[in-house]
């Protein structure tokens, strides 16, 4: 992670303007595939689903991915959940309890804005529970994700990385713009003090929970437009791998046409 270039745009030669054009085209493709996933569940009982897991420091751009990438598809087929500080009730349960309750139903794309990984990130950095408790969570998470994949959920795990300097710019932008004050949290400034420990926690997360069945994608997120394009491509790839097509009618189309025309 120390060598990771958060301003890079791997796999894309163009700039922001070229990205906008491609984004429109690829968003349309994503929307089509999502509708196909939904249609196959609705019309043919296909039980599969996709789960996008977004992790990243404050102002890394998770909200922008939700707004612009997920926002390009039909909300009917999306199950979105943001995970903040656990409630009393959630804390009284195993850390995966609230996660299980938010899993996408068949035919849907689930979106986790933060996730079970907070339980090995902020929890580890701030010692919210002792190491004996968070340490075994890496293996628990791997077992949990294995279970999800075996049950037909494709995981798309995206860790978004911005530089400390870029984060400062983003937070300043929030302060400078009254329409963005709602996104600003004074605590985010304090978290900046813990940057090295977060880097360490992210490194451990990547090393211990990137599996062959649910790999992590490290996303250079300094350039917003690149992140959107990249996540769009990751979702398209995940959906294309399902080999979907439009479900055939389970009725006689011609007979139905005749019947309808006589009404
Ligand atoms: P935001 O995503 O800006 O709404 O912030 C949500 C906050 O909740 C972040 O500071 C997260 O680190 C924190 N959070 C999320 N999950 C947990 C958790 N399991 N334990 C403690 N804090 C968490
Ligand atoms: Mg925040």
Please tag this protein with its features.
alpha/beta, Rossmann fold, binds adenosine monophosphate, binds magnesium ion, Polyphosphate kinase 2 family protein, transferase, kinase
List the helices and strands and how they pair.
Elements: H1 16-44, E1 49-56, H2 62-68, E2 78-82, H3 88-91, H4 97-100, E3 109-113, H5 122-125, H6 131-134, H7 137-150, E4 153-161, H8 164-176, H9 186-191, H10 195-209, E5 216-220, H11 224-240, H12 253-261
Parallel strand pairs: 1-3, 1-4, 2-3, 4-5
The structure holds adenosine monophosphate (AMP) and magnesium ion.
Magnesium ion is lined by residues 58, 185, 188.
Concise structural overview:
This is Polyphosphate kinase 2 family protein. With 263 residues, this protein is of the alpha/beta class. 48% of the residues lie in helices and 12% in strands.
Bound molecules: adenosine monophosphate, magnesium ion
Distance between the termini: 66 Å
Biggest β-sheet description: 5 strands, parallel
CATH class: Alpha Beta
Shape call: globular
CATH homologous superfamily name? P-loop containing nucleotide triphosphate hydrolases
Name the helicity range.
40-55%
CATH architecture: 3-Layer(aba) Sandwich
Q: How many beta-strand runs?
A: 5
Order of helices and strands: HEHEHHEHHHEHHHEHH
Output the number of helix runs: 12
Tally of domains? 1
Name the poorly predicted regions.
Answer: none
The CATH topology name reads Rossmann fold
Strand portion: 5-15%
Question: Using only CA atoms, what is the Rg?
Answer: 20 Å
Structural class: alpha/beta
GO molecular function, one term: polyphosphate kinase activity
InterPro entries: P-loop_NTPase (IPR027417), Polyphosphate_phosphotransfera (IPR016898), PPK2-rel_1 (IPR022300), PPK2-related (IPR022488)
GO biological process, one term: polyphosphate metabolic process
Organism: Mycolicibacterium hassiacum (strain DSM 44199 / CIP 105218 / JCM 12690 / 3849)
């Amino acid at each position: 992670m120390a060598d990771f270039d958060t301003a890079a745009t791997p796999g894309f030669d163009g700039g922001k303007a070229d990205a906008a054009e491609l984004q429109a085209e690829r968003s349309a493709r994503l929307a089509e595939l999502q509708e196909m996933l939904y249609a196959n569940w609705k019309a043919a009982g296909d039980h599969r689903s996709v789960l996008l897991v977004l992790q990243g420091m404050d102002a890394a751009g998770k909200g922008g991915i939700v707004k612009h990438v997920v926002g390009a598809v039909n909300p009917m087929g999306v199950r979105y959940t943001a995970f903040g500080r656990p409630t009393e009730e959630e804390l009284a349960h195993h850390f995966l309890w609230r996660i299980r309750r938010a899993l996408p139903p068949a035919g849907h794309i689930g979106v986790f804005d933060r996730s079970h990984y907070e339980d090995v990130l902020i929890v580890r950095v701030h010692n919210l529970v002792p190491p004996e408790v968070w340490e075994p969570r890496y293996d628990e998470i791997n077992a949990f994700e294995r279970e999800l994949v075996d049950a037909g959920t494709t995981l798309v795990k995206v860790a978004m990385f911005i530089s400390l300097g870029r984060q400062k710019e983003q937070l300043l932008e929030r302060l400078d713009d009254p329409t963005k004050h709602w996104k600003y949290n004074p605590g985010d400034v304090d978290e900046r003090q813990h940057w090295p420990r977060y880097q360490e926690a992210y490194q451990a997360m990547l090393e211990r929970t990137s599996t062959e069945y649910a790999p992590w994608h490290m996303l250079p997120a300094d350039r917003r437009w690149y992140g959107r394009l990249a996540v769009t491509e990751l979702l398209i790839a995940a959906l294309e791998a399902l080999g979907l097509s439009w479900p055939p009618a389970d009725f006689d189309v011609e007979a139905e046409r005749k019947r309808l025309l006589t009404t």
